[in-house]
# Entry
Amino acid sequence: MTRKAAADAERTVNNLESILPLVLDKNFQWVMMACVLLGISSGMIGCFALLKKYSLLGDTIAHAALPGIALAFMLTGTKSLDIFLIGAAIAGLLSATCIRLITYHTRIKQDTALAIVLSVFFGFGTVLLTKIAQSGSGNQAGLDAFLFGKAASLVSSDVWVMAIGTVILILLAGIFFKELKLLAFDPDFGRGIGWPMHILEGLLMLMLVLSVIIGLQAVGVVLMSALLIIPAAAARYWTEKLHVMLVIAAVFGAFSGFVGTIASTLAPRMPTGPLIVLTAAGLFAVSAFFAPRRGWVTQWIRKFRWRRAFGNKRPVLNEKAASQD
Amino acid sequence: MCVDPHLYKATQSDIQKLENADIIFYNGLNLEGKLSDIFVRMGAKKPTVAVTETIPPEKLREPGEFDGHYDPHVWFDISLWTYAVERVRDALMELDPEHAETYRQNAAAYMKQLQELDGYAKEQIAQIPERSRVLVTAHDAFGYFGQAYGMEVMGLQGISTDAEYGVKDVQNLVNTLVERQIKAVFIESSVSPKAIEAVVEGAKEKGHDVVIGGELFSDALGAAGTPEGTYIGMFRYNIDTIVNALK
Amino acid sequence: MAYALWIVLTGALVASSCGMIGCYLILRKMAMLGDAISHAILPGIVLAFLFSHQLETAYVLTGASLVGLLSTVLIQALHRRGVQSDAAIGVTFTSLFALGVVLVSHYADQVHLDLQHVLYGEIAYVPWDMVTLAGVTMPKAIWTMGTVFLITLIVIGLFYKELKLTSFDPQLAVTLGIPVSLIHYLLMALVSLNTVAAFESVGSILVVAMLVVPGATAYLLTNRLGGMLALSVAIGTAAAALGYALAAIWDVSIAGAMATVSGVLFLLAFLFSPRHGCITLRWARQMFQRSSHS
# Structure
């Protein structure tokens, strides 16, 4: 072998040697796989949330879950993650029902309904928390933050949950694609041709709430909210077609999970969840600037080219109208 | 008030108590966040005492780059907490000189109990083989404890409540557990066990079985009426849990 | 007694000021902005700490206000370039909050920082923080929120027509030559001022509720903007008073009770509003059916 080839070979082996322990490390694997899967499922369901204007449901449910957790604690007296999860899920479903009732029966829009439910439920939860504190049971410290996990402490059971959830979501999206598409873009038409749009929307909300709850207990509020919003919003820049948007959002979500986790292993004190969010934000920025057709830079270039070709004239409909000016 | 001071929310009865109190004692060192500003301001109307104010600053733990921002968890070092007891005694004597003698006697009796507790702690910890004297918890509340009783303290999350740990921190802790064959780690009553469980599972994958040695009281006391509802009871419980798991 | 008065007054001021601003947020589909700002300001507080090594309120408030304003600018920038308003809010606040957490974790995790509690006040403590200006002694929160309320009232009064038109029909406003962007930034500045000042005085729970719930309740009761503004002040004040009363009786969180009561008031409007209430409409329908059958 020539000396250069030998040096190249040695460098490759060294690189592999430094990467190998990382890849073989179980904690890294768990976090990476769970975050990638979460990115895929959140990206996908986030598309529907975006189109129905429920993007901020992640943040809403994280706050609305508080009274559920508080009641679960008051009724059972124990600080168990599973019990809290059930309480949170019930509160989440209840809050989703309230949101739907408000948007369906009044002229109040989705974002206002979300904000109302978020603040009132959370306020009520705070009332319950202080009631618990009065009873002096002593063990209720940190109730609200107790349920919300951190991405860095995900383990194999979380990977399984994420995997199953993602598969179910993909199956449902595949089977009900036509219906979901109509639900997202033209529900009135769906109602017109006799489809039970009401039930479909209810099912979508159910899926959304359950995904959010699972995500919250796995990785916490900010990451879950972000994954629900950012990949879908970024994907929106690249296409008008729903099925393409779903795929792109899933890819963006997966990519964010992947890169964020790797970044988190490069140095201590690099929190995994926030880094994933920042990666997603980076993807969003790239999409917003450079996406073909809808990207800002692309549009600016097009405007620039137009100006160069036509000066500041506006397009004219017909010659007669122009000559009459 | 048995709530995590980080998350405490005031209610009417608490306000009443504070309004009617003749004197208010609080930890200080910014443990109470904004509430400590209020206490300082109330100092104009009635005596409010930060019980840690007489502790000489050299004895406090301070992060390198930020002077003046001390670790407030001083109650885990009995010698430091004794300063607090003395401060309380002196403040009470000043407020109510008629009963000064009672306060002095009560304080002396309590400090004797504290000394016994201190001795108990040192004696118990001596039972742990030296290389196993490592205390691993979810967050860095036990710095003073480690300093006072010769244990190395490792937390996954720093003292700041808003800071978060990353995968590398989990990996580092796991590797440390495996390399040094640490037998047990501990969860805290006020923090979710998920972080510690992740560390335990990671260690298991690397062939080292770590046990969760028990639940420690870090930022809260036990229920009122139980032995762990008092400082001494809580402290003793912590010591016993730690020693039983590690020896 | 004076204690209760100060608290209710503070609550009423927060509710009125935020309630009015909130009407515009509701109309512009930016209702979640209050909650978003409460998260987005984290990096502002962290940076203020990292630069000054102090946790003094002045530094914290400056950092929070600047980043609060920045976040509204970003949200507006995104929205103008075609991002749906709720997505614009979501992208901005999650990214900023994540940035804040990274900064704290990497640079300040050995300091006992409880950043949320460094900024966020608690309405129960309001009467203990008295300030004397020009011979008058009132809680600092009353001075702050009173000033903010007046500023809000004046700005809304001065720009009433512009704010109204840009909220209901921005395209028409453009053709009429109204500087829509400027008005929008003015509104955002008001929102930042209200939210950060109120966060510091009474905490986040009350603020987020009062920004939206009284306004939404008013929205169900009237079709006119002037009415909506006035009603949200009235409803917000009622929620503050009733909320405090309940908190005193049941010995619970004051802010939480105020927020809950505002929710109850909303529920009442939802059911019984003369124009839009569910139950009212159902009765009306029944009566109509009955009269058309006879």
Observations:
- The mean pLDDT of chain B is 81.
- Chain B touches chain A at residues 1-4, 6-9, 11, 13, 158, 163-172, 174, 189-195, 197-199, 201-202, 205-206, 219-224, 226, 229 (CB under 8 Å).
